[in-house]
Amino acid sequence: MNLIYIIPNMKEITRSFTRKVQMEALGGNRFESVDFFASYKQTDIPEETPDKDLEMISEALYLMSKRDVENSLTKFSNELKK
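Structure (tokenized):
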């Protein structure tokens, strides 16, 4: 018996956020920098998803990435101050 799987057309959205900080701004060496990066992906979004919903998903993924980067930067900065 041969099975055929029909896979519907699906969309995916990926959003990321990056911040490059000169160490001098954190009290370190002026010639060094540090990068913070986060990325989130939503897969298996039905193709018929309205644009309004796609925009909301996109914005949420971006905000989660930005939040993670900012939290990492704050934690990193606090560690340097110890």
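Residues 56 and 78 are 33 Å apart (CA to CA). The two ends are 67 Å apart (CA to CA).
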